[in-house]
């Protein structure tokens, strides 16, 4: 039952994203650790604390069966080769030999997919294709977080990215209107997707976190840090630590006792450079043009290092404390950081588990699996006609249940009702002989006889959408 909701959500995503000109990409489930370190950031929770990683070198990867066999006791004695196999296993388990290994030997289950999309963009030379490249993906991500409602160690994301290599003469202030329009359309698309699903209580927060130039974010971060030092003693241990590692993240704090202090801190919007301020204003104008309602949230800084300028987050109803269903933002420069040429980027990822939880809480999740037609056949002589009808209707895309053995009519109709069929096609020997078949509409209980050809045409036209 639940999978129907998942399939419906994914199918709707495909339809909406394709309508905006996006194509699908399937990035790998694991990648080299250094890819995430470089981009998401070594000091972020996602990479610093939550990564599922392991050693993957020719040395450690001898094949589990061979290593296990060698590690077994040999006639009650631990042979030399078993001892070395054992120490290999132990080493692998506690990762004691990390320093000796090349960085590429560490791999991790992906905690997110933006970075993999950027890597694919570089490796497949997508900069040579007509720009921008618009891609979407869906699949599992992994973070070793404390599980709770809406927060899992394996969770699913539906995401999209727009990448655009800078051509000669591009870049700088003259790109601001174009970049802002792309940002606004990306946000418009995710809001259109949520609207199509009927997601309730959707709220969009936006912000600009400036860019990494001396007259912009770094200048603000220095001021913020100085202010935080002054109130340090009144902050909790997490925020105290973040003053050193990443002062911006203090703004993210949900701790009740810190809220009044945070409200007095300087705001990044007042310290943006001219270009970033212009871009932010243009994004807001473009959102207005598209009829997208938003709330400005100066404390929205996001937990990944690669962002610049536009950032956004979307919350929905019924999720408790883990109520962010989508997060995203602009990340110009990330492709270059990973070894590609100067490239702009913006995207988002939706937490699919949370999205589905919210739909379910609003009573929009449990979509009846249902069938269109239940074929109630009675008497061996009707079986061939019943099989023929099932084949024809299934061929036309209807969901048909054909019981493997004949049933009494009462039992068949009860079963049809129980599994949520819309129609029961009643085929007794009389019906097959006369060519006049009986159709019962289960919701109303009405029953009618129709010529079998007309009956088939009627049923094919009544083909339901996957949601009904
Ligand atoms: P993120 O904010 O880390 O961004 O994750 C996006 C969404 O994934 C969150 O808003 C949330 O709905 C869901 N999510 C995250 N962690 C969990 C979890 N442990 N359990 C359930 N759901 C979770 C990113 O991942 C960026 N890559 C988004 C992006 C794409 N930015 C630009 N392009």
Which ligands occur here?
A: histidyl-adenosine monophosphate
Mean pLDDT: 90
Main sheet makeup: 8 strands, mixed
Distance between the termini: 13 Å
Rg on CA atoms, Å: 29 Å
Strand content: 15-25%
Helix tally?
17
Essential attributes:
single chain; 8-stranded mixed beta sheet; alpha+beta; 16 strands; 468 residues; binds histidyl-adenosine monophosphate; 17 helices; 5-stranded mixed beta sheet; globular
Question: Care to describe what's here?
Answer:
The chain is α+β, with helices and mostly antiparallel strands and 468 residues long. 39% of the residues lie in helices and 20% in strands. It has helices spanning 2-19, 33-41, 45-48, 64-71, 80-94, 114-123, 176-197, 217-231, 237-245, 259-263, 274-289, 334-337, 352-361, 383-395, 409-418, 429-434, 452-461; strands spanning 23-24, 30-32, 53-55, 106-109, 133-142, 154-165, 203-208, 295-296, 308-315, 324-330, 343-351, 371-377, 400-401, 421-427, 436-441, 447-451. An eight-stranded mixed β-sheet has the order 1-5-6-11-10-9-7-8, sandwiched between helices. Strands 13-12-14-15-16 form a five-stranded mixed β-sheet, sandwiched between helices. The longest helix has 22 residues, at 176-197. The protein is globular. Histidyl-adenosine monophosphate binds at residues 112, 114, 143, 145, 150-152, 155, 157, 159, 161, 304, 324-329, 347-349, 351, 353-354.
């Amino acid at each position: 039952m639940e999978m129907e909701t998942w399939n419906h959500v994914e199918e709707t995503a495909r339809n909406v994203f394709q309508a905006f000109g996006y194509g699908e990409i399937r990035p790998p489930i694991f990648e080299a650790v250094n890819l995430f370190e470089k981009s998401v950031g070594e000091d972020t929770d996602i990479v610093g604390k939550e990564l599922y990683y392991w050693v993957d070198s020719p040395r450690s990867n001898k094949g589990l069966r061979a290593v296990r066999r060698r590690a077994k006791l040999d006639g009650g004695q631990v042979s030399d080769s078993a001892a070395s196999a054992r120490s290999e296993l132990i080493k692998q388990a506690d990762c004691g030999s990390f320093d000796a290994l090349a960085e590429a030997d560490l791999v991790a289950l992906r905690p997110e997919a933006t970075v993999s999309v950027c890597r694919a963009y570089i490796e497949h030379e997508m900069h040579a294709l007509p720009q921008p490249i618009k891609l979407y993906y869906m699949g599992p991500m992994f973070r070793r977080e404390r599980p709770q409602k809406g927060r899992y160690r394996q969770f699913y994301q539906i995401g999209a990215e727009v990448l655009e290599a800078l051509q000669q003469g591009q870049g700088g202030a003259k790109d601001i209107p174009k970049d802002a329009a792309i940002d606004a359309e990306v946000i418009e698309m995710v809001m259109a997707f949520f609207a199509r699903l009927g997601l309730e209580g959707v709220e969009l927060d936006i912000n600009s976190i400036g860019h990494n130039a001396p007259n912009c974010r770094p200048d603000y971060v220095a001021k913020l840090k100085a202010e935080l030092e002054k109130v340090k003693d009144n902050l909790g241990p997490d925020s105290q630590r973040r003053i050193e590692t990443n002062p911006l993240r203090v703004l993210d704090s949900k701790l009740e006792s810190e809220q009044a202090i945070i409200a007095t801190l300087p705001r990044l919007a007042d310290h943006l450079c001219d270009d970033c301020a212009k871009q932010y204003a243009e994004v807001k104008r473009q959102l207005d043009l598209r009829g997208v309602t938003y709330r400005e949230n100066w404390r929205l800084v996001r937990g990944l290092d690669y962002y610049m300028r536009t950032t956004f987050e979307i919350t929905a109803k019924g999720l408790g404390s883990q109520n962010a269903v989508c997060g995203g933002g602009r990340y110009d420069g990330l492709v270059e950081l990973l070894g590609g040429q100067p490239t702009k980027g913006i995207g988002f990822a939706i937490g699919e588990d949370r999205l589905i939880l919210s739909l379910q809480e609003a009573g929009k999740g449990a979509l009846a699996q249902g069938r269109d037609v239940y074929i109630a056949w009675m008497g061996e002589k009707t079986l061939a006609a019943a099989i023929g009808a099932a084949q024809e209707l299934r061929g036309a895309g209807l969901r048909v249940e054909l019981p493997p053995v004949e049933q009494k009519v009462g039992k068949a109709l009860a079963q049809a009702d129980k599994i949520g069929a819309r129609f029961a096609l009643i085929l007794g020997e009389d019906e097959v002989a006369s060519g006049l078949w009986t159709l019962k509409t289960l919701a109303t209980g009405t029953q009618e006889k129709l010529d079998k050809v007309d009956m088939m045409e009627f049923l094919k036209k009544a083909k339901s959408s996957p949601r009904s």
